[in-house]
Amino acid sequence: MMSCKTVMTDLVCPLCGGTHNVSFWKDKYREYLRCQECELVFVPKAWHLSPTDEKACYDLHENVDGDPGYQRFLFRMFSPITELVAPPATGLDFGCGPGPVLAEMFAEAGYSMNVYDLYYADNPDVLDRTYDFVTSTEVVEHLGNPRDVLARLLDMVKPGGFLGLMTKLVKNQEAFQNWHYIRDKTHISFFSRETFQWFANQTGCELEFVGNDVILLKKPENMPEEN
């Protein structure tokens, strides 16, 4: 049985730290809470997979270079970034997976790229640098600590640079119940437009939504670099 202290910590919003969270949905696998401050929908820690089980799920993914369908999928991030930032700008693809296809697309277009992935490219030195842009596709929904990770990603962006995120967005409770996105047990943080607007307001970033699942955050010009 979990202690009272564990339960209380488990129910804190992992993005804003808020404690005013309400039950949003519950299925036979786990429960989903919604923060009334930032509107993040999240799975409490009691239902998170272990790192070993999480990686086993990722190993089943078949996102490889040379797959036209996957490249078209990544083009939804590649296209708006290249329209905003010209080569030979520097970029980091965070959460690149076993095949850094997006980084290779940028490199072929003349950008200077680094990659990082906790399980497949654990090179922490690249996290101590700053970049003209940072991309992270289909990653934030896997984060148990989105507050710390998003803050670090934004720290790595130079003033005036861009943080590009790709993730499916929560629409409403009715759509959520039958949403394929919640069937993946590695998905534990679910963002909405309102959640990203909250984050932009907190950080002073300019926010733009491109299509249904690409989020662009422009870091303020006058925000000092961390490094």
Account of the protein in words:
By secondary structure, the protein is of the alpha/beta class. It has one domain (4-218): Vaccinia Virus protein VP39 (Rossmann fold, 3-Layer(aba) Sandwich), CATH 3.40.50.150. Helices cover 29% and strands 23% of the residues. It has seven helices and ten strands. It has helices at residues 4-10, 51-58, 68-84, 101-108, 146-155, 173-177, 193-203; strands at 21-26, 31-35, 41-42, 90-94, 112-116, 131-137, 157-166, 189-190, 206-210, 214-218. The chain has a six-stranded mixed sheet, sandwiched between helices. A hairpin with a 4-residue loop joins strand 1 and strand 2. Helix 3 packs across helix 4 (101-108). The longest helix has 17 residues, at 68-84. The termini are far apart. Residues 1-8 have low confidence and may be disordered.
Can you tag this structure with a few keywords?
7 helices; four-stranded antiparallel β-sheet; Rossmann fold; single chain; alpha/beta; six-stranded mixed β-sheet; 227 residues; disordered N terminus
> Architecture in CATH?
3-Layer(aba) Sandwich
Choose one word for the global shape: globular
Oligomerization state: single chain
Q: Kindly provide the name of the CATH class.
A: Alpha Beta
Unreliable sequence segments: 1-8
Report a brief summary of the structure:
With 227 residues, this protein is an alpha/beta fold.
Question: Layout of helices and strands, plus pairs?
Answer:
Layout (H helix, E strand, L loop, with lengths): L3 H7 L10 E6 L4 E5 L5 E2 L8 H8 L9 H17 L5 E5 L6 H8 L3 E5 L14 E7 L8 H10 L1 E10 L6 H5 L11 E2 L2 H11 L2 E5 L3 E5 L9
Parallel strand pairs: 4-5, 4-6, 6-7
Antiparallel strand pairs: 1-2, 2-3, 3-8, 7-10, 9-10
